[in-house]
Write a structure and sequence with these properties.
- The complex is a heterodimer.
- Chain A is built from 13 helices and two strands, in the order ααααααββααααααα.
- Chain A has a two-stranded antiparallel ribbon.
- The C terminus of chain A is likely disordered.
- Chain B has one domain.
- The relative contact order of chain B is 0.17.
- Classes of the chains: A mainly alpha, B mainly alpha.
- At the A-B interface, helix 4, helix 6, helix 11 and helix 13 of A face helix 5, helix 11 and helix 13 of B.
Chain lengths: 296, 303
């Protein structure tokens, strides 16, 4: 039982949780504002990871600078898919009737394309690099530099986006769109611009998370899928479109996963994640922490 | 009245081609035919639930995988025909058991729920197999390809005729009614819960048997492969590209992707997947009624 009470495990849970909260935040922004189910979200994480990897190996770019480049790449991809696909989808009443289903199929198409293009371009083999792997000790807790980097960056970006949504006029417009789309139009929110901002922000966050992942794990073209699943579990735990609850749910899933695996074995990780996922969908589809469709 | 038999031309072409194929007898062609008719059977079964009720399943791999597992477990214990029937039975019973809670969930939640369920069962089977100390099961003495082909062909025929008949039956009318508006259908006396359960179970049986056949074809069972989510995704893609409002759609969708995969898979597997993704996007955005809808002519006319 000593292991369960150790600070080491607590930090592991916090780091995993912060990363999940960050990835799910991007997914939630895109779902909340446009009702698009982005099943390619984890593949954006993969893109971010490769940006960091190639930035470092080809140009000697530090992953810290890689964060910026990956964010820009993610935002660009978001902009392109919005202009190319989703503006059309959102404008067609016929396709809007089954918007969520259709968006899921479209994003699945994008996901398959991204994964396989990446596999063709970079080969399917796993890659990795060394970054900040010196060990720091805090009392009985030993952490490598890269894991501290992941924790600090993820928390900082989650906090920044949270503050943006709470106080900045553009963030408020995004929130308005999440809460009451029809009313937002009436009070003069430029829907198109806000949607572009939301999708660019959502994709950029995923790519940033990818850089973070690449500093601690091996990367491969098909690495994204488990992140898509975890992100969906998180936003369903918190209630779809509910940003604040999503952040808390991210931490919660991190804790559940790390302690669950510590109590059983790594083989049970997927069963645990999918079990939580199905349990929530069956028992409280509006989310454990959600209260109907209200977003705070 | 040329219009009266027009819907039957395409299925007839498939039936004749399917019956004639063994005459040429090349094993390669039989393999392609086996894949084609397996996919047709899978997609037709899927439409009974997902096209007729609007409950889009992204988890049909679970029935396929369970069928494969049943055949692998019963291999050498019972005759193969019994094993295949058991595969279908277990898949159908599984659908009935999980159907009650799962079918209460609607829309996009249902889509991701079915997907999650299939993955959960996959990982449970993996754990079960490692507890049993077996990592992949080999099956010796599988029947000749010609037999597997014949069964796949028969299942495709049953699936196609079944989908056609169900769509025109009382059951099908009820399903279509609840797709349009579940509350309204219930109000006018359609037993929506019972009908959904029946459709779910019906759509599970044939995929179970096909899964068992596929295990016999590869002569081994391995959970990651048997419960591969790509199976679920391919079914949905074939239905979208072929069109699922008509029993002809799955024929076209399955034929299209089986040919495409034969042309591209061996040379450029990742290229095939990219094309699959691009076509899915193209059809969802521009041709929502699929290939069958293009053939049927003017859009907007309900079939």
């Amino acid at each position: 039982m000593d292991v369960l009470l150790s600070g080491q495990l607590l930090f592991a849970a916090l780091i995993t949780g912060a990363l999940y909260a960050l990835i799910a935040l991007g997914l939630n922004l895109v779902y909340g504002t446009m009702r698009l189910l982005n099943v390619a979200h984890g593949d954006l994480v993969m893109i971010g990871a490769y940006v960091a990897f190639w930035g470092l190996t080809l140009f000697g770019l530090s992953p810290i600078a890689g964060l910026v480049v990956a964010a820009a790449a993610g935002a660009l991809l978001g902009w392109l898919t919005y202009l190319g696909l989703f503006r059309r989808l959102l404008a067609s009443p016929q396709l809007m009737r089954r918007l969520e289903g259709n968006s899921l199929l479209l994003f699945f198409g994008i996901s398959v394309i991204l994964q396989n293009l990446a596999a063709m371009a970079f080969t399917a083999s796993a890659r990795g690099y060394q970054f900040m792997d010196q060990v720091y000790r805090f009392g009985d807790v030993a952490l490598t530099g890269n894991r501290i980097f992941v924790l600090v960056t993820a928390v900082t970006i989650c906090a920044a986006v949270y503050l943006l949504l709470r106080f900045h006029v553009f963030g408020l417009a995004i929130k308005a769109l999440i809460e009451r789309r029809d009313a937002a139009v009436i009070v003069g929110v430029d829907i198109d611009r806000v949607q572009i901002a939301a999708i660019c922000l959502g994709f950029a966050i995923a790519a940033i998370a990818g850089v973070l992942v690449s500093t601690t794990e091996q990367i491969s073209p098909f690495m994204g899928f488990p992140f898509t699943i975890s992100a969906f579990v998180v936003i369903i735990l918190g209630g779809l479109g509910n940003i604040t609850a999503g952040l808390i749910a991210g931490l919660l899933l991190g804790v559940l996963e790390v302690y669950g695996v510590a109590l059983t074995s790594a083989a049970y990780r997927s069963v645990l994640i999918y079990g939580v996922f199905i349990g929530i969908l069956l028992i409280r589809p509006q989310g454990l922490l959600g209260r109907g469709s209200v977003v705070r | 009245m040329i219009a009266a038999y027009r819907p039957f031309i395409l299925p007839a072409v498939f039936a004749i081609a399917g019956l004639a194929l063994p005459i040429w007898g090349s094993n390669y062609l039989l393999g392609v035919g086996f894949a084609l008719f397996s996919w047709i059977a899978l997609v037709q079964s899927w439409t009974v639930l997902s096209a007729m009720t609007g409950y889009v399943s992204l988890g049909h791999a679970v029935f396929y995988g369970l069928g494969a597992y049943v055949v692998a477990l019963s291999w050498g214990v019972v005759p193969m025909a019994v094993g295949l029937l058991l595969a279908g039975l277990v898949a159908g019973v599984f659908a009935l058991v999980v159907g009650m809670p799962v079918l209460r969930v609607r829309g996009p939640y249902f889509v991701i729920l079915t997907f999650g369920l299939a993955e959960l069962v996959k990982y449970l089977v993996i754990i079960l197999e490692s507890e049993l100390g077996s990592f992949s099961r080999l099956m010796f003495g599988a029947p000749d390809l010609i037999w597997l082909y014949a069964i796949a062909f028969a299942l495709a025929a049953i699936g196609t005729i079944g989908a056609f008949v169900i769509r025109r039956s009382r059951l099908g009318r009820g399903l279509l009614a609840l797709r349009e508006n579940e509350e309204a259908a219930e109000t006018v006396g359609v037993p929506v819960n019972r009908l959904k359960m029946i459709a779910f179970a019906l759509s599970a049986v044939i995929p179970g048997i096909i899964g068992g056949l596929a295990a016999m074809r590869t002569t081994y069972f391995e959970p990651m492969q048997a419960f591969d989510p790509t199976v679920s995704f391919t079914i949905v893609t074939m239905a979208v590209v072929g069109g699922s409002d008509d029993a002809r759609g799955p024929l076209l969708g399955a034929a299209f992707f089986t040919l495409l995969s034969e042309l591209l898979w061996a040379r450029l597997p990742q290229g095939y997947m990219v094309v699959l993704g691009a076509l899915l996007i193209l059809f969802v955005l521009f041709i929502p009624r699929g290939l069958a809808g293009m053939f049927a002519g003017r859009p907007g006319r309900a079939a």
